[in-house]
């Protein structure tokens, strides 16, 4: 039997470790997830984990990056169905909050992530989020849909609000109820950017 190319073997090993760690982190949490258990479940050793991710913390960061990429793709689908650029922007912001109640995202991204990896503002993924949001806001300003606010300043403020709201949702006693309240408030917050719209329209 022919041996697999080294590049393919590396990708396969990484994939196995990510899948088993993600399952463990999502069910029992980072602190209680045993490296021996999930490496054994992947048919690998601790040495493989250290080689590919450095340590358990590095593996958590990789799992979060994988989930974050999936969330981004899901948000693209949501915004593609919006009827206007403004509605797409609102749907993207609120869609992020709606995902915060999902058990895997709630536990891994919004609870264990900040506890283990520190302030999400320092995560590499945030640069991409802010850049994308800034681009969208630039377009909305150019189209005359929103007030002529500085796009970077607005993007950073909205992104910060999103992060805090998601963590509030994830750490509350009733995430679903908290998410509903957060989304209503967030829409009201965003409506302040609209240019020349009646108050009733701003709530949409």
Automatic annotation (TrEMBL):
It holds the Pfam family TetR_N. One of its GO terms (molecular function) is DNA-binding transcription factor activity. Gene3D superfamilies: Tetracycline Repressor, domain 2 (1.10.357.10). InterPro entries: Homeodomain-like_sf, HTH-type_TetR-like_transc_reg, HTH_TetR, Rv0078-like_C. The keyword Cytoplasm does not apply. Keywords: DNA-binding. PROSITE patterns: HTH_TETR_2. Residues 11-71 form the HTH tetR-type domain. It comes from the Bacteria. Residues 34-53 bind DNA. PANTHER family: HTH-TYPE TRANSCRIPTIONAL REGULATOR RUTR, HTH-TYPE TRANSCRIPTIONAL REGULATOR UIDR. This is TetR family transcriptional regulator.
